[in-house]
Amino acid sequence: MRGGLGLVWAAIAIAFGLIVLQGYFIDLEVLRGVRTMVLQWAVVLAAAALLLGVANLLAVHLSKIGAQEKGWPYSAVLVGALVVTLLVGLFFGEESPLVLSVFQYIQQPVESTLAGLLAISLTLGIVRLLSRRRDMRTYIFLITVFIVLLGTGPWLIASNGGLHQLMGEARAWLSQVWAAGAARGLLLGVALGATATGLRILLGADRPYGD
Amino acid sequence: MGLRDLLGIGILIGFAVLLIVRTGTERRWPTTLRALPAFDELRRAIERAVEAGQRVHLSLGTGTLIGSDSGPALAGLTALAQTAELTLESDRPVVVSSGDGAVAAASQDALRGTLGRLGASDRFRWTRARMLGPTPFSYVATLPGMLDSERVSVHVLLGHFGNEGALAADIGARQRSFVLAGTDAVPTQALFYATADQPLIGEEAFAAGAYLGAGGMHRASLRVQDLLRLVLIIVIVVGTLLSTLGVGL
Amino acid sequence: MATIRCPMCQTENAADAEFCRLCHAKLPDPAESPAPEVPETGAAGATAPPARGAPVSADRGSQMPDWLARLRQEVTGEAGPSESRPVSGAGDDLDWLGAMPAVAGEEEGPPPGEVPEWLGASASAGSSTDGAAAGADVPEWLAKIRAKARGDGEGEPAFEGESAAEPSPAPTPAPLPEPEAVIPAEPEAPASLGLPDWLLAARPDDAPTVPPPSEPERPSWLMGVTDDGSGELPRVPALVFDGEGAAPEPAPDIDLSSVSAQVPDWIGEGRPPELADRSDLAPATLPAWLEAMRPVDTFRSVIEIESAEDQAVESAGPLAGLRGVLLAEPVVAMPHAPTGKAARLDVNERQYAQAELLHRLVEEEQREVRPRPAAKARPSVLRWVVAAALLVAVGVPGILGIPAMDLPAFAPRDLAGLVGVVDAIPTDRPALVVFDYEAGATGEMEAVAGPFLSHLMERGVPIATLSTHPGGSVLAERLMALQGAGHNYVRGEDFVHLGYLPGGPAAVQLFAASPRQAVTSGFLEEETLTTIWDSPVLAGVTQLSDFTLMAVITSGSEDARVWIEQSEAFLGEAPLVTIVSAGSEPLVRPYYESTDPKVNGILSGLTSAVAYEQRLGEPGLAHSRWSSYGLGLLVVEVLVVLGAVGGVTTGVFRSRRR
Q: Minimal Cα–Cα distance from B190 to chain A, Å?
């Protein structure tokens, strides 16, 4: 029975995958309608999955609080903030100035701060890179970083001089020729890999949806 | 249906046929994989973690399951199955996190299915697959707490990451964990090069299943991808030459 | 009678004997051993001693040592060995003793290695050859030989000092041999037994008669031993006295004074002739086996052999029930308390330290180990240094306004194209602006997108915002409020929010194909409206191509690609512009620079934004962040260089240390 159920899920996944896929190549009214309906179901399911994820998040942190595990005060703060925001949004509406203020004065600064931390972490990572990994790729990486940085922003002196302009051109050449070309190649490879992954699911070889 | 549509269908069908054929011949002519130090180091790190009673954490990224960023998440789900098998005997089995609800649900399903297939259904805990945050930076914000409380020593990032991926890798490095990171976003791959112990460049993230022993079709996929890549290179070179010579297509 | 010499102990055995009578070694087959060459009697030259184990021919002349042959020659007048051969003295070349042929019918001859006492002690004995020595002891074996020879009809050479009255104390007997089978006499044995006449003549008249061969066969050296019924074995004095037991009896002197003159003086007198008398004689050497058995007069160990009845019976082990075996228990198996000295180990310092280490290791294994708390991540000093440097570099210009970086003097090439696109669009239809960036990217994106929105507002173009991110609409409201404040833009009249579009690329494709189906309600829409599409801002918009312009503001290249690729087929004549972060530009620019461009305008990075603000003449966020941006970049450059130098230096030192 278990094996049979797995085949049913696989058949459903393959069928819906083929329906959506053909919509990119075959433009028929009937098929377009089916595809649109399936896509709408997918959108609804994604939103429902977001709710599931939030429920999972809540349950994990509640269990952590209950077991008094390490870091449970932070879990308590998280659960409290979640509940408060949910209640405010339910009572006052998601477009109320209160909710917008929560986003504007709490979430947005916190995320901006994390982005600032990203700058520090990246800088530190580059500073330590040669100590951790000493090969030709790393040397090329560092030289490229240096040239691009020099050609991106202003200088303390002679900011609009010939050398600064030259560095700007070098930076544009590096980023728009070498980096863009390499990125295109990587993207082609990524596209092939993603296609293979999708095909394995459509052929039933990979079943990430479980049994 | 235009020429481009027909070409697209033809490429897909050809890809599928090559995949099936190569999978069938995989036993007779097995695919030889080039050495990827990242996966060798990962295996060794997982073995060390199992012996030391520490945990392996697998992050499936902040992408969704219904977008173009679902590819690496699906590759991550395959790696999850293999990692769960490797850590089955550990006191601290693998824990998986993601920044999307649908990916979290899929990871729970994959983990339960893997443990059931290995005869260890009783070891499944639904809290082992969790969503840390609905947005990328909120996901990263809760990562340090999770890595610290779960005593993670192997930190694997295999999914869709934006700029926040660099922060996630750096958090793992600060925890003195072994960090392996791979994604489909090219700018993030550059960030991983600077912050992770073992970065995966290009499509190496999609090869995780083959290198972790997921099966013959995964290895066959790599061979077919190599073949198609060669075709693409030839087409690009020929097209460039023709374009240079003024021959319009 | 042919005899065979034992290869092990040189004892003469009967030719047909299989085992040696003394040491029980397996005797070689007489047929296999070649008979030695027997030289003719009187042949000159030395004859080699008989081969080991080879039967000794009854014809003694073939194996006779030279000196004996000489003696014989002197006595009998027969040809003997050369004169040059030295006369054997006592202790010299006595091989003939071992080569003595076995007497047919009975065991005769001295035990191997035994030196007759009358030969060994003759050096110190008096040189009397008179009959006073007739009363001296004569070895029994010799007496028997003589008697036999006399009984066979040959004259016996006078031999003084021969007496069989008292049997000379025989040497310590070897373990009693098994009763030997009667050695059959060889019929062809000569009557004289091959003995020289002088030997035969040495038998005294009163010598006891040699018992006939028919008597029980016993070794000749045991002949004098009588069984008096006491059960005691004859005492055999040991060759070497070890100081224990009774002192050995002195060897009886043999008085050879009664030996006839036919006997060489040295035999009759019992002492070898003076070496000075025979100056032509070279001193002989004793064979090693004989030398080893030379009796030492000073001490002799006496070994008492218990009778069979007195011998203990072994009661344990595989030899249980046997007599005369070494008892195991008293010697081997009897448990005994170890002496104190034997039980004490002699341990040195190193061994003691090692034992102590092993003891500690075992103890530690048995002790429970408390789980160690996980190592806390130590804050890195370098991290704090980098953070401080960046904070100072970014904060100081922003707060103090110094240093003031020079504004870019040249605008990027792409800016002109973008400005031209915006200047050319009609203003009667709304522009669709997509806000697809996260809250964390507001620092850069608001600065870059600000002048673009300001340009649109300056031209009076209505704006509809949309986002595929949950927080995108809120960010759109924030930026629109910020920019709209300077242009009197009012929500609901000049701009609306279409809200959040969930579903990723699928939703984008859906919206591109049918905007009114994809979005039914907006964000912060007026309550009077039934649907957002009823807003006056969106009047006349039914499909994507009805928008005057489509702009995608995103920090990630993926979002830009999705919008570009999904909306391309539905945009029609409406231009598409992208406002992206500096990091996404390389991946988006190909859409702008291709032969068939999908993107009509591109704006990326703070540099372009500052130039845009300069063109508009409205310094905004980009201007305010320019100096912090420049100084921060310079600090990062310095840190990268220092890090690279430090990494190289560390590597060099590490390799040198190795």
A: 9
